[in-house]
Design goal:
The complex is a heterodimer.
Chain A lengths: L7 H34 L7 H8 L5 H35 L7 H4 L1 H15 L5 H22 L6 H25 L2 H12 L7 H21 L3 H5 L2 H6 L4 H23 L5 H13 L6 H21 L8 H25 L1
Chain B lengths: L2 H41 L7 H9 L6 H35 L11 H16 L4 H23 L3 H25 L1 H11 L8 H28 L3 H6 L4 H23 L5 H13 L3 H26 L7 H18 L1 H4 L2
Helix pairs in contact in B: 1-3, 1-12, 2-3, 3-8, 3-10, 3-11, 3-12, 4-5, 4-6, 4-7, 4-10, 5-6, 5-8, 5-10, 6-7, 8-10, 8-12, 11-12, 11-13, 12-13
């Protein structure tokens, strides 16, 4: 038995791909660092990068320390962690369901989180961690419902997406009703929550987000070894010894966990989970799911959206989620338009 | 061999006769159901009014009688608005599903409702409009713009069209939210309009949109035969002498007239236009001449029925028709998605 030889051509392609991925990751890291510097220095109290850096490590006057460590750092951390979580979740959804449009927004999981959170806010009159718990339960409930109704001799991806669209509309209608029946001021609070913002994430919530993200990223690394075989189609994947249904279910479970965690902390930031993986796939351009790159694009997208939302030209200090939607949706429409042209050609 | 064609043709004749009888019966039964629901909508409510008193109120109203005032001033307009909006949504849904050959199409899913909503919100914000009867023209304009965008990107790709609609909705929703956050007064008007309700719309709004609904319904009736040919595919329809482009354009106009009218009347009601044509096809088969007629009857049954149910489920208060209609419509979408035809796309 001769060992399976890898031809030089294959080796060359592999080297080129991994080199390209390294370059993409490095450039995104530079971008994120630049954006983070911007986020720490720009604002009502403008700081030089040097002073901000010193304040970050506890050197400087009390004012600098307060602005950097208490105001800007938590916001920066929340934007990076939530963006990473949404990016990774979206990449897992899209590659597992083999549909570039599968995202928590379109599947109704984000809508479920909003319904859960607004129920706690308006129905029970509670705030803080209880709202996050409500969002988590809402997202998980909708995900389980989609699962239950989409499962028919296995998990068919288009069926999963369409059932999700149905639940998205149901959630939107429930949300409209809750906003209409609420008191005026409460309704305005709830409206801000349904958009999502990284502005008010503090201490315990941030730690929870960080720990949860670390655990789920490890889980994602474990399940990512099935992504290659699953991309070949169910028959080939089974031939390679992958139990396709349980692989898909485990992967989606990790993705739903990521969405529920991030939404519970910062609210449903529209379209990050959809756009970040799409950009990542374009950048790596190797036909793979681009999981690690999606983490970086997600973080960069949310961070830049938050900078625009805070200091941008919108006239009001807008919640982060508004900017992600306005930036994300046109990009997706463009993707759809060009995709159609390609399939027609 | 000589007798067999005759046997099959007489069999076929009998089948056609049986089908026609069933189609007539379905329409008659639906008309009966609609009559019952109209009566129920006049009688039932927070203040129950007995049938003889309703009759009195309609035939010989007494000035100053509270029951008579409730019937003539609130319940009759509400029933008329329900019939008109339900008819418009049902027929619009049938035409959309026919012209796109897509079972997952409806004014809400295709983003027409959100386009109308954005235009209405901007009108409230920039022009200071306050009455629903003033919203009409903006609802039309917004629905038309959204329809143009969605059809230009998603046309010809049945399942993708639903996703383009969802994306346009996701683009427009944050824009609406942005306006609502800037202008609390607009938010206060909007949240009662957006939930989808038959109350508070006087006969003045109805008289404005009625001509549009009439024109749209006539156009839809004229289109039915062309939709039957289109169901066989663009090429076959062309081979039968149809100008497919003209059909599409007329259908687009019909959809905007009907869906815009319905949204102007009842607010963005989701999923009625989706569920009604499906129910109609179950009852009378795929002939669009019958589907359009039955949808025109089933639409009011569903919307006004949802309104009546909404008055009964919560003691002492009411659930808006739009919420109940979505709760009925979402299971229909899920059932369609579970069907083999869609799953095989």
């Amino acid at each position: 038995m001769t060992p399976l030889t890898v031809t030089p051509a294959v080796t060359a392609v592999r080297t080129r791909r991994s080199r390209r991925r390294a370059v993409v990751l490095a450039s995104l890291a530079v971008l994120v660092v630049a954006l983070a510097t911007l986020a720490l220095t720009v604002g009502a109290a403008s700081l030089s990068p040097g002073r901000a850096l010193l304040a970050l490590f506890g050197v400087g006057d009390a004012g600098d320390l307060f602005v950097v460590q208490r105001l800007r750092l938590p916001r920066l951390g929340a934007a990076l962690l939530a963006g990473a979580a949404f990016g990774l979740a979206g990449a897992l959804f899209q590659s597992t369901l083999r549909n570039p449009l599968a995202s928590p927004d379109i599947l109704g999981i984000a809508g479920g989180a909003s319904v859960g959170a607004v129920t706690v806010l308006l129905g029970l009159g509670m705030t803080g961690m209880a709202v996050s718990l409500g969002a988590f339960l809402g997202a998980a409930t909708i995900a389980l419902l989609i699962w239950f109704f989409a499962w028919r001799q296995g998990l068919h991806s288009i069926r999963f997406v369409l059932v999700g669209v149905g639940f998205a509309y149901l959630a939107a209608s429930l949300l409209a009703w809750m906003l209409a029946s609420a008191d005026e001021r409460d309704a305005a609070t709830a409206l801000v929550w349904t958009v999502g913002s990284v502005a008010d994430v503090r201490g315990a919530e941030l730690v929870m987000l960080g720990v949860g993200l670390a655990v789920l990223t490890l889980a994602a690394a474990v399940v990512s070894r099935w992504q290659g075989p699953l991309a070949l189609g169910d028959d080939h994947a089974r031939g390679l010894g992958v139990a396709t249904d349980s692989a898909r279910v485990t992967t989606l479970l990790v993705a739903v966990g990521l969405v529920a965690l991030a939404t519970a902390t910062v609210g449903p930031l529209a379209f990050v989970a959809l756009v970040a993986p799409a950009i990542a796939r374009r950048l790596t351009d190797d036909g793979g799911p681009a999981l690690s790159v999606s983490v970086a694009t997600g973080a960069a997208l949310v961070l830049s959206a938050d900078i625009v939302a805070q200091h941008g030209l919108l006239g009001v200090a807008a919640p982060t989620g508004i900017v992600t939607g306005i930036v994300g949706a046109p990009y997706l429409l463009w993707l759809l338009a060009t995709h159609e042209r390609r399939t027609r050609a | 061999m000589l007798t067999s064609p005759q046997v099959t043709s007489s069999d076929a004749a009998r089948q056609v006769a049986m089908r026609t009888r069933r189609q007539v019966a379905a329409c008659a039964i639906t008309l009966g159901a609609l009559t019952l629901i109209v009566v129920a909508s006049l009688v039932l409510g927070v203040r129950d009014v007995s049938l003889p008193v309703v009759w009195e109120a309609l035939t010989s109203p007494v000035a100053g009688n509270v029951d008579h005032q409730v019937i003539a001033g609130q319940r009759v307009p509400r029933a008329l608005v329900g019939i008109a909006a339900g008819l418009a949504l049902g027929v619009a849904g049938a035409v959309i599903q026919g012209v796109t050959r897509n079972p997952i199409a409806d004014p809400g899913l295709l983003g027409l409702n959100s386009g109308a909503s954005l235009a209405v919100v901007c009108a409230v914000w920039l022009l200071g409009l306050t009455a629903p009867s003033q919203f009409v023209w903006f609802a039309f304009l917004g629905a038309a713009a959204a329809a143009a965008l969605v059809f230009s990107i998603g046309a010809g790709q049945p399942v993708r069209l639903a996703l383009v609609g969802a994306t346009v909705t996701a683009l427009i929703t944050p824009l609406i939210t942005l306006v609502l956050l800037r202008d609390p007064q607009a938010f206060n008007l909007y949240r009662f309009w957006a939930v989808g309700s038959l109350t508070g719309r006087g006969l003045d709004t109805l008289t404005v949109v009625l001509p549009f609904i009439a024109v749209g319904t006539v156009l839809a009736a004229g289109l039915a035969h062309r939709l039957n040919m289109l169901a066989l595919g663009d090429d076959v329809a062309r081979g039968l002498g149809q100008r497919v482009g003209v059909t599409r354009a007329v259908a687009g106009l019909t959809i905007v007239l009907l869906a815009g009218s319905a949204t102007a009347l009842a607010g963005p009601v989701a999923l009625v236009g989706l569920a009604v044509p499906h129910a109609a096809r179950r009852l009378v088969g795929t002939d669009y001449r019958w589907v359009v007629v039955l949808s025109a009857l089933l639409g009011p049954v569903m919307l006004l029925g949802a309104d009546v149910i909404g008055r009964l489920v919560l003691p002492g208060t009411e659930l808006e028709a739009g919420v109940v209609a979505a709760a009925i419509g979402a299971p229909v979408l899920v059932a369609v998605a579970r069907g083999r035809k869609v799953a095989g796309v």
